[in-house]
Structures are given as C-alpha cells and as structure tokens.
Amino acid sequence: MISNRIKSARKYRKLTQEELAKKINSTKSTISNYENSYSSPSAEVISMLADALETSTDYLLEKTDEIEIKQKYYDLTKKDENDIEKELEKILSNLDSSDGLAFSGEPLDDETRELLSISLERSLRFARQESKRKFTPKKFRDKDSD
C-alpha cells in the first residue's frame, strides 16, 4: 500500500512527518492521514512526495522495490554543488566591487542582482552537467543512459 511506502521512505530519509509536510507545503496531519490510510494522495501529491523523499513514484506506487533512484553519470554530486556555490560567490563578489557591473553607470539594485545570481547559478549547473555528459569516457557511463 502507498501508505506503507510513504512511511518507510520517510523513515529511510530520517524525516519527521512535520519535515516531510514542509517539503511539500502540507501539514503534519495530512502526512499522518496518508501514512495511516485515512486518505490517499492525488497523482500530483504523489509526485511531490517522491521528489521530497528522493525516490520514484514507481516505488511509492509499489511498481518497484528500489527506494533509491539511480543517478545518471552526469548528475551533479555534492562536490559539484559546492564548487558551483563557490564559483557563484566569487563571481558575485567581483560584481560588488567598485568597478563591477553597472547599467548606464548605475550600480545593480538588489532585485537585479538576485535575478542575475539565479541566472548565473543555472548557467553554471548546466555547463557542469554538459561537460560531464560530453567528456565522461564511455567506459564510465551508465549502460542505459543516453
């Protein structure tokens, strides 16, 4: 039953019902109702639960017994995430200097700086994934990946 799968995945990830509820913008009582089979989550909520529990919808729907999602060889690791964060901080600190980026001689306002930060982070993530996808030797790639 999906109720058992939600509960086992939550415990596997060492999350409380309250923590899981926050991750999907719900309440502790809703999670409790799902886990005790008092109510059933919609397809949209199942997808949100799978993302929050870092598992697949197939696991929650009992189509597979594997709780872990196999990562692709080009997925970002914790080290990649840390490297991207450091690079982003370095770029943004350079923009804050007196000779940094300005629009028509005006310094960046907070909103524009935040939008630029988001855009740069996405670009750095994409570049890192693409370089992993293109330059990982074939012998280290997953057999079932593209």
TrEMBL record:
<dbReference type="InterPro" id="IPR001387">
    <property type="entry name" value="Cro/C1-type_HTH"/>
</dbReference>
<keyword id="KW-0238">DNA-binding</keyword>
<dbReference type="GO" id="GO:0003677">
    <property type="term" value="F:DNA binding"/>
</dbReference>
<feature type="domain" description="HTH cro/C1-type">
    <location>
        <begin position="6"/>
        <end position="60"/>
    </location>
</feature>
<dbReference type="InterPro" id="IPR010982">
    <property type="entry name" value="Lambda_DNA-bd_dom_sf"/>
</dbReference>
<protein>
    <submittedName>
        <fullName>Lin1762 protein</fullName>
    </submittedName>
</protein>
<dbReference type="Pfam" id="PF01381">
    <property type="entry name" value="HTH_3"/>
</dbReference>
